[in-house]
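Sample entry (238 residues):
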Amino acid sequence: MKRTSYTLLLVFITTLSTFANSSKAFTEKADAFFKKYVKNGSVAYKAINLDKAEITSLYKEIGKMNLSSFSVNEKKAFYINAYNIIVIYWVAEYYPLKSPLDKSGFFDKVKHKVAGEDLSLNALEIKKLLLPYKDGRFHFVLACAAKSCPPLASFAIHPEKLEEQLNERTTMALNNGEWLRVVTADKKVALSKIFDWYKGDFTQKGSAIEWINQYRKMKIPTDYVIEYYEYNWSLNEG
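Predicted structure, serialized as tokens:
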């Protein structure tokens, strides 16, 4: 009887330990994947397509994940990493593509299993990140498989480094002269259409320029005229 009780206790403790570490284990696997296949914001889709075992395993794990014990930061990091993996998985699944838009319903119709829920990429982004947390910085860590996206990081988002990584990626994009184009002579600033499509995420407490200036080394005068340059949906292939 004692031996049986001890065995059951050991199984219970092991199960709890595995469950508690599922966030860390998933993040570490995602991190290894991004480091292997992402460089300077570009993704090696061809290489992934030739050997899909790693990303398929991650994709399936996303669907089965149980978030009931996750902290807020663990949930945020999971959803960000899940979103990016799903985008890459879906491109690799139908590679070669010239653009994610070549696949009908890529963002808004095709559904994926995410922690037991069937969600499109748009639903994942909006319902699990943007609406609950109202944080515009998410736009600078989410992949869209296009050249005009903020550059995708070659590492996973870690719960314990979440604030640091969100600030780092946002600052990097908003100080990039090609991604955010200030024309001093004309008193204009050309922004990504992300600032138009998701205007409300950047104007909750002021103007979009005021939001941007929180992360700019050289502040943009608030009276500058805002324009939006054409979004390049060509695949961010490396």
